């Protein structure tokens, strides 16, 4: 799951990125409204963690602009502003959740998981894919009742396809979901992870659409939705 962190404090941003990546997320950081806009224009994100005190304006203004343009990206405001008035303003502007600093990283990860589950229209984190079950919140998977070990990148690939719910994702889109903007890796890495995931979950879990990219196998899309 690809998360945009909009936070101008480099220490806080670095801690958020490192901590969320330990929970299986792929994260990119923007320190300003302008950088956040550039990131959204360049890649797909599944959710945004948004600070309010940004150097080029109030984060609520950025959120208001997104909602005015019809952008339905799930947003969690993460801020030191804890008054009821601030929370009301956040929700009235269009945030999906609001968490105040200081915060517990595990709680933040769980709230993001809940946002993504609701965005996908799911009531449960546990999904059945043929003879496999996956728990997107705990990053656990089973096949025929036997636990399967998936790497962090394999989880990122699987959750990106689950969030897409049958839409085709290009190799470039999947690359961003797996690595974000920071890593310069080989052009064949997505294909390698697709191959490994098929070996673990079954060949028909991921469908190749020649010349376009990959999508979740057709018979699994109803379960992903």
Automatic annotation (TrEMBL):
<feature type="domain" description="OmpR/PhoB-type">
    <location>
        <begin position="124"/>
        <end position="218"/>
    </location>
</feature>
<keyword id="KW-0805">Transcription regulation</keyword>
<keyword id="KW-0902">Two-component regulatory system</keyword>
<keyword id="KW-0238">DNA-binding</keyword>
<keyword id="KW-0963">Cytoplasm</keyword>
<dbReference type="InterPro" id="IPR011006">
    <property type="entry name" value="CheY-like_superfamily"/>
</dbReference>
<dbReference type="GO" id="GO:0032993">
    <property type="term" value="C:protein-DNA complex"/>
</dbReference>
<dbReference type="Pfam" id="PF00072">
    <property type="entry name" value="Response_reg"/>
</dbReference>
<feature type="domain" description="Response regulatory">
    <location>
        <begin position="2"/>
        <end position="116"/>
    </location>
</feature>
<keyword id="KW-0804">Transcription</keyword>
<dbReference type="GO" id="GO:0005829">
    <property type="term" value="C:cytosol"/>
</dbReference>
<dbReference type="GO" id="GO:0006355">
    <property type="term" value="P:regulation of DNA-templated transcription"/>
</dbReference>
<dbReference type="GO" id="GO:0000156">
    <property type="term" value="F:phosphorelay response regulator activity"/>
</dbReference>
<dbReference type="InterPro" id="IPR001867">
    <property type="entry name" value="OmpR/PhoB-type_DNA-bd"/>
</dbReference>
<feature type="DNA-binding region" description="OmpR/PhoB-type">
    <location>
        <begin position="124"/>
        <end position="218"/>
    </location>
</feature>
<protein>
    <submittedName>
        <fullName>Transcriptional regulator</fullName>
    </submittedName>
</protein>
<feature type="modified residue" description="4-aspartylphosphate">
    <location>
        <position position="51"/>
    </location>
</feature>
<dbReference type="InterPro" id="IPR039420">
    <property type="entry name" value="WalR-like"/>
</dbReference>
<dbReference type="InterPro" id="IPR036388">
    <property type="entry name" value="WH-like_DNA-bd_sf"/>
</dbReference>
<dbReference type="InterPro" id="IPR001789">
    <property type="entry name" value="Sig_transdc_resp-reg_receiver"/>
</dbReference>
<dbReference type="GO" id="GO:0000976">
    <property type="term" value="F:transcription cis-regulatory region binding"/>
</dbReference>
<keyword id="KW-0597">Phosphoprotein</keyword>
<dbReference type="Pfam" id="PF00486">
    <property type="entry name" value="Trans_reg_C"/>
</dbReference>
């Amino acid at each position: 799951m690809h998360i945009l962190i909009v936070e101008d404090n480099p220490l806080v941003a670095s801690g958020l990125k490192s901590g969320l990546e330990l929970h299986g997320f792929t994260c990119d950081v923007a320190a300003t409204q302008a950088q956040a806009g550039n990131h959204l224009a360049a890649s797909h994100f599944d959710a945004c963690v948004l600070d309010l005190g940004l150097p080029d304006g109030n984060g609520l203004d950025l959120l208001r602009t997104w909602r005015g343009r019809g952008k339905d990206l799930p947003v969690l405001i993460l801020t030191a502003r804890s008054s009821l008035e601030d929370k009301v303003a956040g929700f009235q502007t269009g945030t999906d959740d609001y968490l105040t600093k200081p915060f517990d990283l595990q709680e933040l990860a769980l709230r993001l998981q809940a946002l993504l589950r609701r965005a996908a229209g799911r009531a449960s984190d546990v999904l059945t894919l043929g003879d496999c079950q996956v728990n997107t919140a705990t990053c656990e998977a089973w096949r025929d009742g036997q636990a399967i070990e998936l790497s962090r990148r394999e989880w990122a690939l699987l959750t990106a396809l689950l969030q897409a719910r049958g839409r085709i994702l290009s190799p470039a889109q999947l690359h961003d979901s797996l690595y974000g903007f920071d890593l310069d890796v080989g052009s064949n890495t997505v294909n390698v992870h697709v191959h490994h995931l098929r070996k673990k979950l079954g060949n028909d879990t991921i469908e190749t659409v020649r010349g376009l990219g990959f999508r979740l196998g057709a018979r699994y899309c109803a379960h992903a939705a």
